[in-house]
Amino acid sequence: MKRALFSLAISAMLLSACSGGIIPNGVQTAPSAATTAPPDRAAQPIPSTPEATLPPAAQTGDGTTAATLGLVRGPEIGSLKVDARQARLAMDSFRTSCPGLVRRDDNSGLTQGSEWIPACDAVKTWTGDAISFFAMHMDAVQVGDGRAFATGYFEPEIAGCRTRQPGCEVPVYRRPTDLIDVDLGLFSEELKGKSIRGKVNGTKLVQYDDRAAIEGGSLAGRGLEIAYAADVVDFFFLQIQGSGRLKLPDGGVMRIGYESQNGRGYTGIGRLMKDRGLITDGSMQGIVAYLRANPEEGRKIMQENKSFVFFRELAGAGPLGAMCYPVVGEASAAVDPKFIPLGAPLWLSMDRAEPNGIWIAQDTGGAIKGANRVDTFWGAGDRARAIAGGMSARGAALVFLPKAAVARLIP
Hints:
Layout: E1 4-5, E2 13-14, H1 66-69, E3 71-73, H2 84-101, H3 117-123, H4 130-137, E4 138-143, E5 147-155, E6 157-161, E7 170-173, E8 180-183, E9 195-201, E10 204-206, H5 211-215, E11 225-229, H6 232-241, E12 243-247, E13 253-261, H7 269-275, H8 284-293, H9 295-303, E14 309-313, E15 332-334, E16 345-350, E17 357-363, E18 373-380, H10 382-389, E19 393-402, H11 403-409
Parallel strand pairs: 5-18, 6-12, 15-17
Antiparallel strand pairs: 1-2, 3-4, 4-19, 5-19, 6-11, 7-11, 8-9, 9-10, 12-13, 13-14, 15-18, 16-17, 16-19
Helix pairs in contact: 2-4, 8-9
């Protein structure tokens, strides 16, 4: 299932493919007064003083991966400030990721699958506290200058219905049969790893319909509707999130997740609106408030994001991250796999307290690029929406790697 998830401090991301998924709800916690907020308001940030980063190592290559950007050995993991409950969630997610972690290629250049085996074997039967587990089997390293930027995402629930009815008329489409994926690497070594989407028009491959065309009815009458949403703004943001829940009129829930996308580039409307002086609050809540107050202009603004997401109905465990394992609120994060190995733990110390602690790199995103860029997942519900919707934090990041890998990389 390929999903697009929203980096809710203006950015957005398109995530890699997996199938299936239901929202994780085992990690919801009782909200505190400091983090509770109405659904359309961001949570008030809890200030925190981040730990200082370490002097960076000399760059050893072109800087396009963690291995060539340079590494510094970090402090002992046992000395890091962590919350025991959150660390336990992270350890559980690490355990879930282990089968893929030991066999996948690490595009960061930092680890080999076999180096993760001791930790993955140990976590199967570990009964002690989580921080002791990480400290026993891993060492912390700083990638580049260690300066981190963190945003947040969540899985929304919006009003919807399975069949079109008055007040519920925004189509939720499955992938059209004429949408074609092209692996450009089949045509040129220089384009290896790159792909495009489009459709055939006569003898030519052309761009697929953009958001304005699709909303104007270009796919109508083809039997592609799997459901309908009640509100165009809510559905717009669910598309950016890439998965979510439709609350049905009978009280039931239909879960939908990313199936594909039209191949058009993503335009973040938050930055666009700020650049035009339409808003000063770039949070999701600020953007939504303007769109609802100015519906006609708002629709045109949303259509400037030409990207359009197609969905499938989901059943089973999920939502699934880039490793095809369920992402878990307050434990999973999206990263750039060129700088943080997918499946690896990472530690954040930021200028707001909510994202501080250990996260597991289980997802990726088109807007999540570069060293120490992290998008934290907060689960579902009003609390998750409130925290993720205003998340924009800066501070320090460390990556946890197997001790054998660190000994090899930093003799």
